[in-house]
């Protein structure tokens, strides 16, 4: 298998994507926690362009950008596939990758309501896809098994919850998005996810502090 190391940050949903994928594949790895306030030389060594985590180092070679890493993991360890076999299904998954709910945390006032509106709009699409669209009847977007799209959306859902609590706006109610809600629950029940997601209270404190910092940064 060769040595596998992951440089990450505990509250980083991009890092969690990589950890969940490796665990689902049963790949053993060493985890190295990086400090965002005091960047180690590792970041500039392995990711000189962005200096961001996650970084996967496989047999001494670095791979960066979480979705690129997910695809690398999929292509390197072929068992327990995270992508469908059929090219059309693969295209579908790639199309849906990367929904933009993360921006709400950084916004306030009118901009924030616009971002919340956008997030709800995306959720409505996802709900419709799960109810009567291309993902109808599936437990996961990947079918009966978790796939790349589940990992990307699922790891982001912790931020969605943190945003809801922090901005005191309900972005998704169970009643309005029952299929999405059921999917989130199935995802969170997976042991590989449970052991990866951060402690809720610690995470909320971090999310609040981060939001405060971002708002101050935006309005000096
Ligand atoms: N597009 C990147 C985003 C990674 C990212 O934003 N990482 C954050 C932590 S969640 C980071 O390393 N921030 C440090 C910094 O920006 O200085 C990915 O998908 O991997």
UniProtKB/TrEMBL annotation:
Record domain GST C-terminal: where: 86-210
Signal peptide span: none
Official protein name in the record: glutathione transferase
InterPro entries with a match to the protein in the record: Glutathione-S-Trfase_C-like, Glutathione-S-Trfase_C_sf, Glutathione_S-Trfase, Glutathione_S-Trfase_N, GST_C, GST_C_Tau, Omega/Tau-like, Thioredoxin-like_sf
Protein species of origin: Amborella trichopoda
GO biological process terms on file: glutathione metabolic process
Annotated keywords: Transferase
Origin organism lineage: Eukaryota, Viridiplantae, Streptophyta, Embryophyta, Tracheophyta
SUPFAM superfamilies per UniProt: GST C-terminal domain-like, Thioredoxin-like
Family, as annotated: Belongs to the GST superfamily.
Recorded GO MF terms: glutathione transferase activity
Gene Ontology CC annotations of this record: cytoplasm
Entry keyword annotation includes Transferase: yes
Residue intervals of the GST N-terminal domain: 2-81
Superkingdom of origin organism: Eukaryota
EC number: 2.5.1.18
